[in-house]
Amino acid sequence: MADNKGKVATADKKNTAKKPAQGANADLFISPALSAVFWILSVVIVASAIIGNYYYTNFVVVDETTLGRLTRVAIVILGLALGLGSALLTNKGRALLSFSRQAYAELRKVVWPTRQEAVQTTFIVFVAVCVVSLFLYFCDVIFLQIVRLFTL
């Protein structure tokens, strides 16, 4: 009898451990069908912006003024932005947004060097590159003379 109670208690602990993880994922992800709808919508919007721009510039014979060109470019940019926004509503897009938020949080934790440290490090790297390049130049000259000695 004691063994059964212990097994039930262990099963309850396992179930409670899974619930928060499922709740966190439920907030992040949507159903696969709705995600597919957003992908299709995104592809349709981007394709219509590209095809519409191509058709308008090649087959519509209108003297395009600066305002007309600006309007066309603004519509294409708006179409691309709407397509990107629709793609960000998918499961992959939400995962990308979550990743970018986490990356930004980690980036804020970075301790950046001061201006003086950056200048000093740059100077050290510059000097090291000059020394190594001179060393390689002298090695090249010496090996060239050795090859000339044996070949001529």
From TrEMBL:
The chain crosses the membrane at residues 28-51, 71-91, 123-147. Gene3D superfamilies: Preprotein translocase secy subunit. It is found in: Membrane. It comes from the Bacteria. Keywords: Cell membrane, Membrane, Protein transport, Translocation, Transmembrane, Transmembrane helix, Transport. HAMAP family: SecE. Component of the Sec protein translocase complex. Heterotrimer consisting of SecY, SecE and SecG subunits. The heterotrimers can form oligomers, although 1 heterotrimer is thought to be able to translocate proteins. Interacts with the ribosome. Interacts with SecDF, and other proteins may be involved. Interacts with SecA. Essential subunit of the Sec protein translocation channel SecYEG. Clamps together the 2 halves of SecY. May contact the channel plug during translocation. Belongs to the SecE/SEC61-gamma family. This is Protein translocase subunit SecE.
